[in-house]
């Protein structure tokens, strides 16, 4: 099977799944939730003090998503873009609520043991992650939504309330900055 | 590093940021399923079938000026009630009556309404023994009668036939011939006190129109008998016909 045929088949499957989601098929929504859970938790975890907070935020966000499916229909956004848009707002709410506890949480996170997987991560991944963390928040958000969540430029534009062209420009600038940071660190 | 392309950099970033594979816990899944069920129930309540209906329902909740909308609704409702009352009581002004009649609302036709108005003026003039006003009204009524269709004519021809001679105006030919009564299928008995002596009580006499002519004299077309109080017939209309405005 050629790449073109494969892409066409994938696109058709995505369209079919979107139709089922828009039709409120509960099985399709459960599958959607489980498939996107990891990426959504990762997105939230990078902005919240702990993985428990991230899990809670994703749970709250997905509850809000299904409570507001009517608004999603009206907006014309894809389920993925709509879900990340809601998650982004939920994470911001969590951050506001946790503002006073931030110092305590940060100290606890620093003292908590690193997950085993992170300890064994490759040196290159560490360097890329370190450089990524140095990027401005907007750059990180654009790259994460494009790379981790797998959203298209149009969908990222929907989440961040930007124009698709501005998202592509922001992505190009973010990659350029990331490249510069990695060069300054001496990563090959 | 500067030699690597954007695609390669994105590939490295994807590997570095790849999320740990985790699944939602049981509590989270349960919460999600509850939300799904709740959403399905809400859809049943709000939505009938199509999405445009849903959009209208949701937009109603997001009206920017609910007070203004409420005032608008009240204004429309009161206007509608007033219009319905005007149609129901047949008290519409001229242009509105024409429009209402044209669109098929149950109102008196403008021509008949005008004729009834003139008939009323004529009746008043006759009652007040005002020969000049009576003649004017009579001439006007004569013109109006000629513009009526046969159905409308039946509503006013009786009173007109009675009043026009009293105003000294000839009755138009269109209403001089009284409508032919349908022969009764069964003989009707008159009350005993109304049966004249020497007449057969088998059938009721053909109802004659109110007549101001002296008995024995034949009505003369174009004659202008003098207006006299004693000649006021008992059957002359003192109020508006049934299809006229109430209270007039």
Automatic annotation (TrEMBL), chain A:
BP-aspect Gene Ontology terms: DNA-templated transcription initiation
Alphabetical UniProt keywords: DNA-binding, Sigma factor, Transcription, Transcription regulation
RNA polymerase sigma factor 70 region 4 type domain ranges (all copies): 126-178
Gene Ontology terms for molecular function: DNA binding; sigma factor activity
Domain RNA polymerase sigma-70 region residue range list: 32-97
Family: Belongs to the sigma-70 factor family. ECF subfamily.
This protein's name: Unannotated protein
Organism this protein belongs to: freshwater metagenome
């Amino acid at each position: 099977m050629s790449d073109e045929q494969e892409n066409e088949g994938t696109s058709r499957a995505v369209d079919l799944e979107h139709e089922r989601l828009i039709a409120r098929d509960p099985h399709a929504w459960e599958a959607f939730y489980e498939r996107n859970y990891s990426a959504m938790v990762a997105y939230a975890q990078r902005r919240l003090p702990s993985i428990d907070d991230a899990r809670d935020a994703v749970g709250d966000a997905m509850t809000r998503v299904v409570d507001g499916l009517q608004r999603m229909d009206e907006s014309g956004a894809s389920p993925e873009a709509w879900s990340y848009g809601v998650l982004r707002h939920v994470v911001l709410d969590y951050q506001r609520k946790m503002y006073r506890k931030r110092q305590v949480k940060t100290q606890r996170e620093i003292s908590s043991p690193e997950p085993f997987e992170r300890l064994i991560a490759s040196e290159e991944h560490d360097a890329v992650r370190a450089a990524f963390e140095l990027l401005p928040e907007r750059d990180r958000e654009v790259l994460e939504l494009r790379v981790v969540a797998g959203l298209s430029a149009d969908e990222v534009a929907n989440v961040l309330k930007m124009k698709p062209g501005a998202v592509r420009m922001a992505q190009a600038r973010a990659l350029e900055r990331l490249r510069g940071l990695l060069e300054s660190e001496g990563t090959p | 590093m500067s030699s690597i392309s954007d695609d390669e950099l994105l590939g490295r970033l994807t590997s570095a940021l790849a999320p740990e594979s985790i699944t939602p816990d049981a509590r989270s899944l349960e919460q999600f399923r509850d939300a799904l069920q709740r959403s399905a129930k809400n859809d049943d309540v709000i939505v009938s079938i199509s999405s445009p209906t849903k959009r209208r329902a949701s937009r109603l909740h997001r009206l920017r000026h609910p007070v203004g909308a409420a005032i608008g609704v009240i204004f429309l409702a009161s206007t509608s009630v007033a219009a319905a009352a005007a149609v129901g009581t047949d008290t519409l002004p001229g242009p509105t009556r024409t429009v209402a009649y044209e669109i098929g609302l149950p109102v008196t036709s403008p021509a008949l309404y005008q004729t009834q108005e003139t008939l009323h003026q004529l009746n008043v003039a006759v009652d007040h023994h005002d020969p000049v006003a009576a003649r004017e009204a009579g001439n006007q009524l004569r013109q109006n009668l000629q513009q009526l269709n046969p159905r409308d004519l039946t509503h006013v021809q009786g009173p007109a036939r009675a009043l026009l001679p009293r105003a000294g105006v000839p009755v138009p030919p269109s209403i001089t011939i009284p409508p032919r009564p349908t022969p009764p299928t069964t003989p009707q008995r008159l009350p005993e006190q109304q049966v004249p002596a020497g007449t057969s009580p088998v059938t009721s006499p053909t109802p004659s129109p109110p007549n101001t002519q002296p008995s024995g004299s034949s009505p003369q077309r174009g004659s202008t008998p003098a207006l006299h109080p004693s000649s006021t017939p008992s059957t002359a209309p003192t109020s508006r016909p049934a299809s006229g405005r109430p209270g007039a």
